Amino acid sequence: MDRPEVVAPVGASVPRVDGFAKVTGRARYLDDLDAPGAWHGVTVRSKIAHGKLEAIDLDPAFDWSQVVVATAADIPGANVVRLIEDDQVALVPVGGHVRHFDEAIAVVAAPTRALAFAAAKAVKPRITPLPPVFTIDDALAVTSTLHGSDNVYKQFLIRKGHATDAELEAVFASAAQVLDGTYTTSPQEQMYIEPQAMMAEWRDGRCYLVGSMQCPYYVHKAMKHLLGCDAEGVVIAQSVTGGGFGGKEEYPSMLAAHCAVVAAKAKHPVKIVYDRDEDIAATTKRHPARTRHRLAVDAAGELLAIDVDCVMDGGAYLTLSPVVLSRGVLHAAGPYRCPIVRVRGRVVATNYPPHGAFRGFGAPQTTFAYERQLNKLARARGEHPFELRKRLALRSGDTTATGQLLGFSVGTDEVFAAIEQVAGAPPVRDGVNANGAPVRRGRGYVFYFHGAGFTGSGEQRLAGRAAVALTASGTFEVRSSSTDIGQGSITMFTQIAAAALGVGVSQVSVVDPSTARVPDSGPTVASRTCMVVGGVVERAARALRAKLELWAAEVGISGQPIETLAHKRAAAGGELVETITYEPPPGIQWDDATYTGSAYPVYGWAACLVDVAIDLDTYEVTIERCVQAVDVGKAINPSIVKGQIEGGTLQALGWAVLENVVYQEGRVANANMTNCIVPTFADAPELETILVEVPYPFGPSGAKGVGEIPMDGPAAAVANAVEDALGCAFDDLPISPEAIGLAKPRWRLS
Amino acid sequence: MTALYVRPRELREALDTRAAHPDWMVLAGGTDLMVNANHRPEPAGILDLWRLGELCAIRVEDAGVSIGAGATWWEIQNHPVIRERLAPLALSAREIGALQIQARATLGGNVGTSSPVGDSLPALLALDAELEVASVRGSRRLSYATYCTGYRTTQLLPDELIVAAYVPLPGKATRTTWRKVGTRRAQSISKVMGAAAITVDGDLVVSARVALGAVADRPIRVTAVEDAVRGQRLGAAAADAARTALRTAIKPIDDVRSSAGYRREVAENLVARFFSAGSMS
Amino acid sequence: MKVTLEINGESRSVDASPWKRLLDVLREDLRLTGTKEGCGEGECGACTVMLDGEAVNSCLVAIGQCDRRTVTTVEGLANGEVLHAVQRALVACGGAQCGICTPGIAVCAAHVVDRGLVTGTDDATARARIRELLAGNICRCTGYQLIVDAIVIAAREVAKP
Description:
The structure holds three protein chains of three kinds.
Chain A: H1 19-23, E1 39-45, E2 51-58, E3 68-70, E4 97-98, E5 104-110, H2 113-121, E6 123-129, H3 136-140, E7 152-160, H4 165-174, E8 177-185, E9 197-203, E10 206-211, H5 216-227, E11 234-238, H6 251-266, E12 270-273, H7 276-282, E13 289-297, E14 303-315, H8 321-331, E15 340-349, H9 363-381, H10 385-392, H11 412-423, E16 430-432, E17 438-452, H12 458-462, E18 465-470, E19 476-479, H13 489-501, E20 508-510, H14 529-555, H15 562-573, E21 576-581, E22 590-591, E23 596-597, E24 602-615, E25 621-631, H16 638-657, E26 663-664, E27 667-668, E28 687-692, H17 709-712, H18 714-726, H19 737-742
Parallel strand pairs in A: 1-12, 10-11, 14-15, 19-20, 25-28
Antiparallel strand pairs in A: 1-5, 2-4, 2-6, 3-5, 7-15, 8-13, 9-10, 9-12, 13-14, 16-17, 17-24, 18-19, 18-21, 22-23, 24-25, 26-27
Helix pairs in contact in A: 5-6, 8-9, 9-18, 13-14, 14-15, 16-18
Chain B: E1 4-6, H1 11-20, E2 25-27, E3 45-48, H2 53-56, E4 58-60, E5 64-68, H3 73-78, H4 80-85, H5 87-94, H6 99-102, H7 107-113, H8 121-126, E6 130-135, E7 138-143, E8 148-150, E9 153-154, E10 161-168, E11 174-182, E12 190-201, E13 204-213, E14 220-221, H9 223-229, H10 236-247, H11 260-274
Parallel strand pairs in B: 1-3, 2-3
Antiparallel strand pairs in B: 4-5, 5-10, 6-7, 6-10, 8-9, 11-12, 12-13, 13-14
Chain C: E1 2-7, E2 10-15, H1 22-29, E3 48-51, E4 54-57, E5 70-72, H2 85-93, H3 102-114, H4 123-133, H5 145-159
Parallel strand pairs in C: 1-5
Antiparallel strand pairs in C: 1-2, 3-4, 3-5
Helix pairs in contact in C: 2-3, 2-5, 3-5, 4-5
């Protein structure tokens, strides 16, 4: 059987529709697809971080007869990977600038992988080095001009409750207590287990691209511009995707460009599948950030002012940096009541491979800063860290840093209560582990939030569309460009549509997203797939059902089950489609110029508890316990939602203690899975997840975004726990054993 | 030009092939030699020793255990006598990669490569293992203590194969201990690793063999520590003596995985812990 | 070199360089694409297959070494259309998200439960043992929790048939 035969309401843990295919190995990812006659493509990359490309030499001793080499000269349209701006080239042109190590200069294709790899080695770019910029400070000091005149891709300034810097400083000057800390977070590799993969085929002048991706219409938009064709000239389809986490949001457009251009030259379909090393070295990472967070409180411990200054490293091209910074800035003051807030953000240009989307998208970076600060505040005041947070937390009726009045779906009290119910006594402070080493234990708490969906009027501008169709065979089909990248959107859409239609899930299928077959629902990012697109699917399904019932009344068969009506209507008149466009909830006011108003339609809310044990011989941190309570509005499929939370939680715990991207002279020095590590089964604690539901009236069955929120909080919880254990602050990620050892003079174990 | 391939049925045939083709790759589990194989040049030939019977036996004798070079770390960690009496070897076997690696990686492979971070090697040093190596010219025994001559360089001659390790069983008065500090809990490369076999009289250290990995270009015995602890009392005295001696005895490096400072400090902590009272296996 | 081996109960022959990786022979020559490549260095376990009764990384096995040997891939775990207990449990528990690591996990977990390696009379011990035995399979989506749940269930089912 291919799918579960269940009639299930929303809220049931229906087994995944694609589960059978995945456990049997029948699900076919890009590199599994039959590709008769396909050649293999390999990218030639710069081995210098910044320079001028003087020439591309081909080794004359190599036999080029079965190889094609594509360069910028072969790009038919614009040599640009269009995204927010048009600054990133697909292939560095001769005479142009190389801006990062491993930047793509040429693509070769050959009938076999081995020949393609050999050929790539025989392509020799000649690059004259230029002075590179490798630090945020050098970027700000403009030691080399990389972007504009000041190397700043984007900046933001948010003010609440004050008009001038002088007013702000006056509050700090007269406050009973001020805490001032600077926090740095590390770059992080998404490490989807399926590397980037894409295939291009030209047929009758049209380019067909299929690959591992999150956003077919992003690729479509980029390819129209690169190929110089109209919307019909290129078709983009998603293949079963082995993980994305943001790493396949924008990067696939680059890969598609390479495939398409070299396939045109080769006159054969061309498949490019990255080796793991290349994937780690050349593709996007989480933006490293440095955040200075100042807070002022009065004698009673109420927040008087928060002042945040966040600088992020954007890497060599602008790509998505403005939006990452935006989200970071909009979360920087945290879910706490504060009358006066200033947030400044900048993202700068450097000569690293561009940093990009990764689950959380700026919020984990600034959340780390504010939750460390709140923790220090509790310690300074001798207040229980959870009690202090409860006291200061935003609730319905409060306003955020942008002046958004919170109304519905604010699960603050519920998530605190959920954690308190299971917290139990803190772990015994001192002990001995199985290796005979003394251990020191500590507990950390965080409270945090995550805006679901696109910022401000973003969703309205996106105008995402989805369709539900009655097919000619009498069953139903959901058509959306949302991609299942593991988060279970196929099953979620199936459940939502089936419930709205009033049929069993076996009567509903979800079309594989291809720009030839589905409307643009917006990208699969920003925790919007269920809340926004799921809502559109629900409306479309309801509208289709209404149409069916109307038809039934007209032909005199009202009252028969929908499944029966469906078959009869299909037999009578063929396909019937309802396409619906997203409508934002009423009353969302957002001013892009001043960054004030309702930044997001709704927020998820979460609290996390982490217990750590630190081995005092080796300084290794063992996470002994991690509990997350997350307000998700409504869990359409609790098992899937739980799985999402657990996955995001472990990525955050890994980011906190284990993971790092190490650069040397702009090159990723740990570009393999041996050295760029992620947690194994043995590193993960038994994760405890508590689903809290405070419904969002404008989400399908009350659901709101959940994909990213679990990533935001746990890293700070780990830092808070380590602080509790060792009595000193850890303000930089990763909190590695090396960092803990170096901090030994600051430990206070009394 | 594709590789030639020989799968000998007997050790004699393997030795003949080795002598005739010293440039061929000697392959058993392949967990090191096959990494990124599709990007490595194809070897001229493959001498496949996987499951060659004479190399796979684990034999318990009166004074020691003979472990065939072809024995896998899965077999070694599950052997009752090795678990009970040669604990450092069994423990290190459990922390080599993970299950899939342990099912294929062999003692002969770990010893043959003798990487500075080879997980079983400090245990072999601390347990004073000997190797039996053979060629068409005959066989000889080599102490593992002097087997490594440099970075991934050993005393093995080009026509020789490793046949077995002979590991003496520690006496009743000898306690053994071992610890690996990896980059994570499993499937990890060692940052610092230590093993010790300490012979005591009451709580006085009579003698010790102390070995470390990942702190030099090869796994090492730290004779300075071994000298310093002789005659000391287990506990603070021996631990402090060990720590002080170690400080000037090793020069670990910075690399992409860890720092010299961390390696030094943790090596001292591990070795001091070895000599603390009540930490023996 | 002509290599003949038994794969999922069937005798198959390929003509390949003995150095060619078993992983590539499976995926390219035999079009058994259930086994995946995640890293090429034996770190991620996505390429796990059974070779002569042991779970191994097929990216680290040379095909020459497989002559006259027995291989089981994820395609051979089920008995006809009846899924292995591990596969059923993974579906029921939600232990597969993007699914790319799932074949490797299914093969390794099937080996582990079939061989009775999940020791420990209490849940905590069993779960810790499962985590140690599966540590060679990396999953980035699930956080491992629901996979461990699934293997506990499968181990119980296999232990008392």
